[in-house]
Design brief:
Length: 854
């Protein structure tokens, strides 16, 4: 489902709407896309995720269906029945039994009689029917029955239109990673992307025929699977000489080409070239993706054409391409380098790449920068400018192993102190991000020694800033602040505005416990503005990303920050802080607002980014375990958390989320020994900084600890008075924990007062599920003091409002209390009295006999 999560959720949403039954007729969706784009795969995943009460009916058109009456709809009719009436009867019976999904695949081949019956079905007053049709855009004819049907449906604004596009380069990388269970190199990503054109089926076929461990050369030269190879050769058979000249030129040119470019490459007269292009587009060999520019409908055609050309033919076309590109006012450096190599002018490549790779990196085209620099380094392996760009680009894109290799080579050939500082900074940071702590610390010591040995000036200031950055990401806050301020003094003395901005980012990002949230937020906003003033979007992205910890994720400000971060990371080509990190932040917002479906969707999206080594990957898996916990699957969640802890290379990066989750799992499982071990582990962590997440996390820790059987007096003494005893927001932490602790200690009257004070107008930082837990505790306290009416009112609000979109153990707990309270005053049903039903509900909550009596 790489690149298809949004489409899948839209389909599932239609089934949810059908459950409400608010429409006049069936819900309708049309899924379109070219062959191999993943329409059938999407439907299979859609069906797999449907609730068990949903009936699924299938019908599929075939290439020969157009000539066979009722061929499609007849698949739904019982044997021996008339196709039309039998199909309508099958659908009608399913609909009257409950929610029903009717899938009709490949509508472009559907026969006229089947289309007529389908239209009759769509006119029925069946709001709990969902009809999903698929079709290929390129094969859809408005003169065919299926084409006319689709055209009529598209005119209805109520029809859900889902267009599946080709995967982009990042999505291709995610698909390769998912298939091979390892991170691909940038070269392999580029090769598969170019050969497949982003069509998922072709990506899978290439990897199937070559193996997931294939290197770039294997993928470049691999013979296509028979089905693809045959399709390509059939498409090229019978081309006229002018058409073949266009195809040959375009294949060697390697990118969409303008009419003028093709005229230059083919040397054909304009009239003849126009005729050739018209025929090639008519037969779907070429497409016109933008006005007056042409490319192959399937990228693999370019490969097949190139394999058929003689070496001399290819060199001649590369020569013409190089000459034509050199004449342009705005050169395409990547194409220039490729054609220089194809023409045998290898000496031109380093100069082209030095200019082009730096330009790509500065404009946010990090992948192009990396590939161009890497290509040129095969001709100039010790070029420091190329190694600098390659290191920076690979780091921005999260190709960390490649980045380390480039950085080490860069360090060895650095031409001045500034180069050496930057190369060493990258080496040290990359060791940290890969989880090699010992290597990071050894490299950091070298960087410090180098900084101390430098004379006053720009290089020394940059070295101080580099040390500050490493100290900050290593969570050595006091030292980070000290080095950042040394860097700023040096920068101001040298007039180095960029270093001033960088020092501000490192200083503000050192989240140490003595800095209040408001002060940190102000410092990060000032650092962000300073980064914008010097025009460094990577620095600005870092400031904005760190600022997100200070902003309430589920607030309007949090949503605005995520939008700004997406825009700025895209402008910088800074993928490592792009979609993957934003999906994690979206998951935090979904949790905060108690939207379980949105939370699950965000986790799935984040899971498509980052490899097994990645700290983000560990956080994604932790969020998945938290999802399992919230759904009540404590054993599965605990097993996942233990596995993550044993295999992750960056454990400290996510302990503030994983350890509280383990404590909750221990409570749900009733495992007291585990709870004690996790409690000890929690108190051994560095004290939580003052961020927007601290308050709700601490409240959930208190709730989980009490659930796990840890005595309230210990929680008060060891957590609030001890571990958090000097926290800047301690008064708020105590106020929100007080009611839970008083209730556990048996002082229900005081608990009612304390809990009511914090839930009447909840602190906006609190997660809605956390608010729900506090309100549940309030209902329990109200019941304990004899105010049954207030308790019922409170717990009904929890179920109907707070947790309406958050099914799981919290809602189960509150529903059990609500049913118990309702059952004690409701009329008896069957052989049980109201009191007996109340006892039965308490048993269902897992209470012991002693607790029942109480």
């Amino acid at each position: 489902m790489v690149g298809r999560r949004a489409a899948l959720q839209r389909l599932i949403g239609l089934v949810d709407v059908a459950e409400l039954g608010t429409a006049d007729g069936p819900e309708i969706a049309l899924v379109s896309g070219e062959a191999g784009i993943g329409k059938s795969r999407l439907l299979r995943e859609f069906v797999a995720q449907l609730p068990p009460d949903v009936v699924v009916l299938n019908a599929q058109a075939q290439p020969g269906s157009l000539g066979r009456p009722f061929d499609v709809i007849g698949q739904l009719a019982p044997a021996g029945s008339a196709p039309s009436e039998g199909a309508k009867s099958t659908v009608g019976q399913a609909v009257h039994a409950g929610r029903t999904v009717l899938l009709v695949e490949d509508l472009h081949w559907a026969d006229a009689d089947s289309v007529h019956v389908l239209e009759q079905i769509l006119l029925q007053p069946w709001p709990n029917l969902v009809v999903v049709g698929t079709y290929r855009v390129n094969d859809l004819s408005r003169r065919a029955p299926g084409g006319e049907f689709v055209q009529r449906l598209e005119g209805q604004f109520t029809v859900e239109q889902i267009r599946l596009d080709r995967l982009d380069r990042n999505e291709v990388a995610a698909l390769i990673s998912a298939i091979g269970n390892a991170d691909p190199s940038s070269a392999a990503v580029e090769t598969v992307f170019r050969r497949s054109g982003g069509i998922p089926f072709v990506v899978e076929e290439l990897l199937r025929c070559c193996g997931t461990d294939a290197c770039m050369d294997d993928l470049l030269s691999a013979q296509l699977p028979w089905s693809l190879d045959e399709a390509v050769h059939q498409q090229l058979a019978g081309l006229q000489p002018a058409e073949r000249a266009v195809v040959d030129a375009l294949a060697v040119f390697g990118d969409p080409a303008s009419f003028d470019m093709l005229a230059s490459l083919t040397e054909l007269p304009e009239r003849e070239l126009l005729a050739a292009l018209r025929e090639l587009t008519r037969t779907n060999v070429l497409t016109e993706p933008s006005n007056d520019h042409f490319w192959f409908a399937h990228a693999l055609v370019a490969d097949a054409v190139q394999q058929q050309l003689l070496g001399r033919e290819k060199r001649r076309l590369h020569e013409r391409s190089l000459k034509a590109l050199q004449a342009q006012t705005r050169p395409d450096h990547a194409s220039l380098a490729r054609h220089a190599a194809g023409a045998g002018h290898f000496d031109l490549i380093p100069a082209i790449a030095r200019e082009g790779a730096s330009h790509y990196l500065a404009s946010g085209a990090s992948f192009q920068a990396l590939r161009l620099a890497g290509f040129a380094l095969s001709e100039a392996p010790s070029d420091p400018d190329l190694l600098r760009v390659a290191t920076d680009a690979a780091w921005r894109l999260d190709f960390l192993q490649e980045a380390v290799g480039f950085a080490v080579r860069w360090m060895a050939v650095a031409v001045d102190d500034l180069d050496s500082v930057e190369a060493q900074r990258f080496i040290t940071r990359l060791h940290h991000e890969r989880g090699f702590v010992a290597d990071r610390d050894a490299s950091l010591e070298q960087l410090i020694a180098f900084a101390d040995a430098l004379p006053a000036g720009t290089a020394r200031g940059r070295a101080f800033g580099a040390v500050a950055q490493i100290m900050m990401i290593a969570e050595r806050g006091d030292e980070a602040v000290d080095w950042a301020r040394r860097a700023r003094r040096e920068a101001e003395a040298n007039g180095d505005d960029w270093l001033v901005a960088q020092a501000m980012v490192e200083d503000a990002s050192a989240f140490i416990s003595w800095r209040p949230l408001a002060e940190t937020e102000g410092a990060l906003r000032a650092a962000y503005q300073a980064a914008l003033r010097v025009g460094d979007m990577v620095l600005a992205s870092r400031a904005l990303s760190n600022l997100s910890s200070m902003i309430i994720a589920h607030s309007a400000a949090g949503a605005a920050l995520r939008a700004d971060l997406l825009a700025i990371t895209e402008s910088a080509g800074f993928d490592k802080l792009g979609a993957g990190v934003l999906a994690l932040q979206e998951a935090q917002a979904a949790f905060g607002s108690a939207d379980l479906r949105r939370y699950r969707r965000a986790i799935a999206e984040a899971g498509q980014r980052g490899g097994d080594w990645s700290a983000k990957r560990s956080r994604v898996l932790t969020y998945g375990a938290i999802l399992a916990l919230e759904e009540g699957r404590a054993a599965a969640a605990l097993a996942s958390l233990v596995e993550i802890e044993s295999t992750s290379v960056n454990v400290t990066d996510y302990q503030q989320e994983s350890i509280p989750a383990k404590l909750l799992a221990a409570g749900q499982l009733g495992d007291r020994d585990l709870a004690e071990a996790v409690w000890k582990q929690l108190l051994g962590l560095q004290q939580f900084a003052d961020t927007a997440r601290t308050l709700p996390v601490v409240v959930d820790i208190v709730d989980s600890a009490l659930l796990a059987g840890i005595d309230a007096r210990r929680v008060r003494a060891e957590l609030l008075d001890g571990w958090l005893g000097e926290h800047l927001d301690l008064s708020a932490l105590r106020a929100h924990a007080q009611g839970l602790l008083l209730l556990a200690e048996g002082d229900a009257h005081a608990a009612v007062v304390a809990l009511a004070a914090v839930v009447e107008e909840p602190d906006p930082r609190l997660f809605v599920p956390t608010v729900a837990s506090l309100r549940h505790a309030l209902a329990v306290a109200q019941l304990a003091v004899g105010d049954r009416k207030a308790a019922l009112r409170t717990v009904r609000g929890v179920v109907a409002d707070d947790l309406a979109a958050w099914p799981g153990w919290r809602r189960d707990r509150s529903e059990a209390l609500m049913h118990r309270l309702e059952g004690s005053t409701a009329r008896p049903e069957g052989s049980l009295t109201a009191r007996e039903r109340e006892v039965a509900a308490l048993i269902a909550e897992g209470l012991t006999n002693g607790q029942l009596a109480e």
